[in-house]
Amino acid sequence: MYCIDNKQFPCSTSLTMKYIGGKWKAVILIHLIEKKRYNELRKELSMVTERTISLQLKQLEADGLIKRTVYTTKPPLKVEYELTEFGKTLIPLLKGIAQWGKETAKSNKRIKTE
Amino acid sequence: MYCIDNKQFPCSTSLTMKYIGGKWKAVILIHLIEKKRYNELRKELSMVTERTISLQLKQLEADGLIKRTVYTTKPPLKVEYELTEFGKTLIPLLKGIAQWGKETAKSNKRIKTE
DNA sequence: TTAATTAACTATACTTTTTATAGTTACAAT
DNA sequence: ATTGTAACTATAAAAAGTATAGTTAATTAA
Q1: Cβ contact (<8 Å) for B47 and A2?
Q2: How far apart, in whole angstroms, are the C-alpha atoms of residue A7 and residue A4?
Q3: Closest to A94 in 3D by CA, of A46, A27, A12, A42
Q4: Where do the H-state alpha helices sit in B1-84?
Q5: Does the distance separating the beta carbons of A113 and B15 come in below 8 Å?
Q6: Is A37 helix (H, G, I), strand (E, B) or coil?
Q7: Which residues of B touch A4 (CB under 8 A)?
Q8: Maximum pairwise Cα distance, chain A
Q9: Is the CB of A76 under 7 A from strand D?
Q10: Cα(A87)–Cα(A4) distance, integer angstroms
Q11: H helices of chain A, where?
């Protein structure tokens, strides 16, 4: 049993899923393996709404997986996101996740590639 | 871009997360590496509500990851769940997820082990 | 013999997460 | 003077997850 800020996680799997289990968290993290500005990320994830991206980024930041850096003081702002050292420990797992998806898409007949 | 039943997934990562991304799906799958009866699973996942377990099991079954077998016709039923061959392709990834959680719990000061 | 227990769920209501759409700020370019 | 831009925020609605209680038909316990 694990605890973070009084929240309980019954096993190590549920602990990992707390970090990458949101609907788009793993996708966002993989895109941030290379440092990016907010709008670059947003354009790459055009199927995710702004609000969701924004909320997920905040959670990832609060969880210590990504770092947000602001370079200007007045609009239009320049903001960059990148993985922290802690976030980088997830890279092998994230690549494994992407890899399983790729292989599965090839062999599973229900999945169509366009 | 991938498609399953007219649902779109922009990248292989999002495709994988469709299968394991629900809040408890990965946890359920890891517990089903060994075939189990419904109540065994439920007791092992005491922090998850019945409704959630039930819904997730149905989705996992619909996704072809697990197989449900009924051994009786009248209550109390005997129902067993196990991974399909397709579900088994996820095992290395699931173990990776559990492993990252274990290692992270050791080194991350915000995570407490009880 | 009647009551309690069991396995595997389902029903209802509620909360949290995600989606859809539109609006904000202060400057820069046209 | 109007339009465009970056990085969000606001509001409302839909989907996912939680909390709690109820169902079935047989078995076991009192």
Answers
A1: no
A2: 5
A3: A27
A4: 12-20, 25-31, 38-44, 50-62
A5: no
A6: strand
A7: 110-112
A8: 51
A9: yes
A10: 17
A11: 12-20, 25-31, 38-44, 50-62, 85-88, 91-107
Name which CATH class applies to A24-107.
mainly alpha
Q: In chain A, what are the domain boundaries?
A: 24-107
Q: How far is A41 from A49, CA to CA, in rounded Å?
A: 12
User: For residue B93, what are its two tokens?
Assistant: 């990834």
**Which residue shows structure tokens 């709008």?**
A39
- Do A24 and A56 touch, CB atoms closer than 8 A? yes
pLDDT (tens digit, 0 to 9) for every residue of chain A, 114 residues total? 899 988 889 899 999 999 999 889 999 999 999 999 999 999 999 889 999 999 999 999 999 999 999 987 776 778 999 999 999 999 999 999 999 999 999 999 999 988
Asked: is B27-107 a CATH 3.30.70.2740 domain? The reply is no
d(CA A25, CA A60): 8
- Partners of A10 on chain B (C-beta within 8 Å) are 27, 45-47
Q: Cα separation of B37 and B29, whole Å?
A: 13
CA distance A96 to A29: 13
Q: Is the pTM of the predicted complex or chain greater than 0.85?
A: yes
